[in-house]
Amino acid sequence: MVKLPIYLDNNATTQMDPRVFEAMRPYFMESFGNAASRNHPFGWKAEEAVDWARETIARSIGADEKEIVFTSGATESDNLAIKGVAEMYASKGDHIITLTTEHKAVLDTCKALERKGLKVTYLPVVTEGFVDLDRLRDAITDKTVLVTMMHANNEIGVIQDLTSIGQICREKGVLFHTDSTQSVGKIPFDVQKLNVDLASISGHKIYGPKGVGALYVRKKSPRVKLTSQMDGGGHERGMRSGTLNVPGIVGLAKALEICVAEMDTETARVRAMRDGMWKSFNAQLDEIYINGPDPLVKPEWRLPGNLNVSFAFVEGEAMMMGIQDVAVSSGSACTSASLEPSYVLKALGVGEDLAHTSIRFGIGRFNTQEEIDYTVQHVVTAVLKLREMSPLYEMAKMGIDLKTVEWASH
Amino acid sequence: MAYSEKVIDHYSNPRNVGTLDPSDPSVGTGLVGAPECGDVMRLQLRINEETGVIEDAKFKTFGCGSAIASSSLATEMIKGMSVDKAFEIKNTVIVKELNLPPVKIHCSVLAEDAIKAAIADYRTKQEALHKQTV
């Protein structure tokens, strides 16, 4: 019997791996020292742990340990990268380029800079969520100081071609930051191969702890400088003051170490479950649509565990209520604080009617095939039941084109 | 967000799901909301043309659990009611009965609109019918 509830929201956060917890454990009570205490063994022990973590993380992404800055999470990393570059290079230019489908940590940071007078270009994406490289090239001006584009999208799992984006930025002499929260640890990530200058990393998306993250900051060719956003004791080579979160940092490093060591087997396992899920939905339901690249057609351009499907004529929140033992998320307005449907799906060209019917399944390390089977069965049952109740499904089946109906909007 | 027991009950066991023949002159159909807004309700009433009493009510709703529950409850409430009385139903009754949180009040408003739209449709049909016979 499958254990309920089932967690299938691994793009939101992940359960910590017990091995990570064990690695962190000594740094709460036994080795509690301040890594900045240079003159006693308590401090040395903490510093040793941080050094190990820094090296481990650097090695995992093809970087040097001096290029890792610890933060409180990816949101802070994004803020530090974008605001830090904008301030440091203010005399060089005042223009930033990003994507409409970025996470709010990037979009709202850019909006904050706009309020201070900077110019931001929000590039639209093409079908399936990809960056249009020609448009990017055209958007770069001599005032552009930074391009910030995510590696993998948190909602639709689309993976951007960072190597090409980075190449364009190199040619134009513009710095390139990527929010790699969803990708680091899940798919190969090498700062050299991907041509990135700054990259945001999060602990809790990779079976590590919450409240810790890192920012990769390139040290040479080009050397990136940042204006710190947190003033204080000058930790992290002045880029991020604040006593280091030693247990968190150890946890982040351990989590990443495990992800990299087990990436091949885990990707295969998670991808097989995801693909099986998509095939089963297709075999049992009509009028369903994939949001983002089709996992069976372009598996290399979609996060292995991510599936985002619109079940037409069935509103997302009602659906989630129908599968209450399965934790997923939806792009429906009803599930968001803003009462607006997902802006990512909108940017993709998904109509608002279909955005309201989208469900994101995030499959991860601790999910089993049994859980996937249970989920598929319950989703199918819920969709059939709710469509039986849906006036839109009835109208569509009668051949009425819903786009031609004059709706009494409220 | 936790749902009230009554919302869960109506969602799990919706009353009066179905379709009445919209071309029947004794049937009024109200279709409110829009797919882009995430909720569409269709409420149908069969009215006894002699007594003006609602003898049957059916609904189909595309929307969240609270929208489904609001329309299910609405059909339950108006069955056996006179058209004139049903026209007076306020959304606040639904809010209270289902214990809807503030973010879900629009679901009850939609149900009130659906009742009114269905009755208006019935009245228009009846007027047209009487004009024909005069």
Structural descriptors:
heterodimer, A: 410 residues, alpha/beta, Aspartate Aminotransferase, domain 1, Aspartate Aminotransferase, domain 2, 7-stranded mixed β-sheet, 13 helices, 15 strands, 14% strand, B: 134 residues, alpha+beta, 3-stranded antiparallel β-sheet, 5 helices, 48% helix, elongated
Q: Would you write up a description of this structure?
A:
The complex is a heterodimer of chains A (410) and B (134). Chain A folds into 2 domains: 6-12 and 263-398, Alpha-Beta Complex (Aspartate Aminotransferase, domain 1), CATH 3.90.1150.10; 18-260, Type I PLP-dependent aspartate aminotransferase-like (Major domain) (Aspartate Aminotransferase, domain 2, 3-Layer(aba) Sandwich), CATH 3.40.640.10. With 410 residues, chain A is α/β, with parallel strands linked by helices. Chain A has a 7-stranded mixed β-sheet, sandwiched between helices. Chain A has a 4-stranded antiparallel β-sheet with strand order 11-12-15-14, covered by helices on one side. A two-stranded parallel sheet of chain A has the order 1-13. Chain A contains 13 helices and 15 strands. Chain A is 37% helix and 14% strand. The longest helix of chain A is centred in the C-terminal third of the chain and has 22 residues, at 263-284. In chain A, 51% of the residues are buried. Chain A has helices at 18-24, 41-60, 74-88, 104-115, 133-139, 162-172, 246-261, 263-284, 316-322, 343-347, 352-355, 369-388, 391-397; strands at residues 6-7, 68-71, 95-99, 119-123, 125-126, 130-131, 144-148, 175-179, 198-202, 213-217, 288-290, 306-311, 326-327, 329-330, 358-362. Chain B is α+β, with helices and mostly antiparallel strands. Helices cover 48% and strands 19% of the residues of chain B. Chain B is elongated and about 55 Å long. Classes of the chains: A alpha/beta (410), B alpha+beta (134). The interface between A and B is medium-sized, with 27 and 32 residues.
